[in-house]
Amino acid sequence: MRVLVVENYEEMSREAASLFQIRIEEKPGLVLGLATGSTPIGTYKELINRYQVGKIRFQQASVFNLDEYCGLDKNHEQSYARFMEENFFRSIDVDRKNTFIPNGNAKDRQAECERYDTLIRERGGIDLQLLGIGENGHIGFNEPNDLLSAGTHQVELEQGTIEANSRFFVTREEVPKSALTMGMGTILKAKEIVLLASGAKKADAIQGLLSGKISTKNPASFLQLHPRVTVIIDREIADAIKLKQDVA
Ligand code: GLP
After folding, report:
1. Which of 46, 112, 117, 136 is flagged as catalytic?
2. Whole-angstrom Cα distance, residue 202 to residue 123?
3. Which residues of the chain have pLDDT under 70?
4. Is 136 part of the annotated catalytic residue set?
5. How far is the CA of 168 from the centre of ligand 1 (A)?
6. What pLDDT score was predicted for residue 248?
7. Residue 49, exposed/middle/buried by CB under 10 A (0-12, 13-18, 19+)?
8. Cα–Cα–Cα angle for 112, 133, 30, nearest 5°?
9. What is the per-residue pLDDT for 161?
10. Is 3.30.70.360 the CATH number for 2-240?
11. Residue 176, ligand 1, Cβ within 6 A
12. Quick check: 148 and 113 in contact, CB under 8 A?
């Protein structure tokens, strides 16, 4: 696992964008796995800037998103479909026929999850997966648990995750309690993974990810089994981890 410590959020975003740029230059038909949340927004902005000055094109690329809430219309302000549209897709030249996200409103959610995994397989698998990380170590919406799921599946969100996400909704009651997410196997099958984290509140989760131990209580720790992962963290996280190690 390659760990890159950068000064701040902006540098993290530039580093991630550069990795995407290199991979798309190498393979214009790249299959991307993308994430939502506040962490990747800077990366999307940076990629949009580079697109606008002609440094990168997405015309031949495909995108599979990690997850989607259940029970929100895809046009709902807080749906991840809308997030991707507003923060990325509408500002680049990606072909909408090649952008995919699980349908959290599907009547048969089990069938929807199977359909999603099949689609990824049919496109040759994900070449480069972008990940953020939850404060509890969740990736996508794979929450800490005794058992984790391999394929795309429906998940009940943890109270802490619901609270963390409630900042985007008017009332807490509105925050969805479940979601469809790529599973651990779906994520780990990506040929390359880049995980981004900034801010001291992610320090515990990152410490677990770098611990050399694997636990279902920190789903991100499974990334240690993958041969091609880059973790980009800011100085705040690096310092917080070091402080804890010094005290221990
Ligand atoms: C959500 C998403 C994750 C994301 C996480 C962290 O739960 N499903 O994909 O990594 O939140 O979000 P943020 O980047 O806003 O801290």
Report:
1. 136
2. 33
3. 248
4. yes
5. 12
6. 67
7. middle
8. 60
9. 84
10. no
11. no
12. no
Q: What is the pLDDT of residue 32?
A: 98
Show me where the domains of the chain are located.
Answer: 2-240
**Cα–Cα dist 29/81, whole Å:** 21
Whose tokens are 């100085």? That residue is 235
**Based on the number of CB atoms within 10 Å of its own CB, is 181 exposed (0-12), middle (13-18) or buried (19 or more)?**
buried
pTM for the complete prediction? 0.95
What are the tokens at 214? Answer: 């694997």
Neighbours of 26 (CB within 10 A): 9
Query: Which amino acid would we find at residue 102?
Result: P
42 Cβ below 6 A of ligand 1: no
Q: Is 246 exposed, middle or buried (0-12, 13-18, 19+ CB in 10 A)?
A: exposed
- At residue 155, the 3 state secondary structure works out as strand
By the 8 A CB rule, do 23 and 57 touch?
no
Catalytic site includes residue 77: no
Residue 36 Cβ inside 6 Å of ligand 1? The answer reads: yes
